[in-house]
Amino acid sequence: MKNLQHLSSKWINVYEPFPHILLVELARDPVNAVCTEFWQAYGKLFDSIPENTPDVRALVLSSAFPEIFSAGLDLIEAGQVALATADSDPNTTDAARIALDFQRQIKPFQEAISAPSRVFFPVIAAVHGMVVGLGVDIISACDIRYKVSSWQKTTLYSFALERYAASNTKFSIKEIDIGLASDMGTLVYLPKITGNLSFIREMSYTAQWFSASKAEQVGIVSKVVEGGKDEVVAAALELAKLIASKSPIAVSGTKRLISYSTDHSVAESLEYTEIWNSAMLQTKDMMETLQSATAKRPGNFLPLNFKFGKSKL
Fold it and tell me: pLDDT class for 312, splitting at 50, 70, 90?
């Protein structure tokens, strides 16, 4: 498995396990607590992939640590921000201006966490161990979530929350227990992902733990895999290989059209599809798909980013 150093950073490891597929591991020791430097590197990675690796067709997102996917927000850093705000002099500061400053900080944070939704290829979250608070935001922005099915209690973080997913995983929308409403995507994505407002409200109001089987039942994950990190990552990579064998134009267009339809009416979505496919139906991938199927061979598709000519992977 090739280590792609030009894409990796201090706490994010990027590999190429198979042609056209990336494996991204979150690796901030010990529990992937997300600080400012971490989320900035995360967003930058996804935004830079199309320019640095023009023929990526699928990506698997995982954790370097078998017992935890992410402990969520770095509470030490968050506490410092809260303390600085609480200690500000009311005679020299203005609450409205502080609010505007927070908005300027929150927006790029949101954009970084939602970066998987913007790329042209599918992102598969291979979830194992605990997924706490902001970790739920991270996986919610991915296209597909696999999870392992069993869970063993750990004391890594007392506040830790117990989407392919491994059987050793449990979830919690934990922000309410630190005095926050989740603001990085969970409360936006999960009602649309699950279609179950009652369940999402209950979990969000209470920070209760819920199991892999419940996550699968309500549609947060599409598959529960028996085992742990190795098993769920392997399953997610097999799915990525299947996706990567298809026309990258067709896959990227399908992702775009599904995403558009979640926020628009049927009539608007059909019109958008009409406009989109009036251009995309001109692709050479259609003929290659038919010819490869007839010849019973894998498809030989051009890189998705045409200006590069040939893939750099």
Answer: very low
Amino acid at 33: A
In contact, 61 and 116? CB cutoff 8 Å: yes
* Structural domain range at position 217: 2-242
Instruction: Report the 10 Å Cβ neighbour count for 191.
Output: 15
Shared-domain flag, residues 184 and 274: no
**Are 158 and 101 found together in one domain?**
yes
Q: Return d(Cα 75, Cα 56) in angstroms, integer.
A: 34
Burial class (CB in 10 A: 0-12, 13-18, 19+), 154: middle
Band (pLDDT 50/70/90 cuts) for residue 44 is: very high
What is the number of domains present in the chain?
Answer: 2
Q: Check whether 89 has a pLDDT greater than 70.
A: no
> Residue 255 and residue 240: Cα distance in Å, rounded?
14
Residues comprising the chain, all counted = 313
248-261 and 266-280 are packed helices; what angle lies between their axes, rounded to 10 degrees?
Answer: 160
Supply the pLDDT for residue 151.
42
Tell me, what's the pLDDT at 91? Answer: 67
State residue 29's pLDDT score. 93
As a whole number of angstroms, the distance between CA 214 and CA 220 comes to 9
- % of residues, the chain, pLDDT over 70: 85
Is a pLDDT exceeding 90 seen at residue 273? yes
Same domain for 156 and 256: no
At 144, give phi and psi (nearest 5°): -135, 145
Q: Which residues 6+ apart lie within 8 Å of 90 measured at CB?
A: none
Degrees, nearest 5: CA angle 125-44-25 = 35
Based on the domain organization, do 102 and 201 belong to the same domain? yes
| Whole-angstrom distance, CA of residue 193 vs CA of residue 183 | 17
Taking residues 253-271, report their average pLDDT: 92
Q: Cβ of 81: how many Cβ atoms within 10 Å?
A: 12
Please give the helix or strand (H or E) that residue 197 lies within, else none. helix 197-206
- Supply the CATH number for residue 279's domain: 1.10.12.10
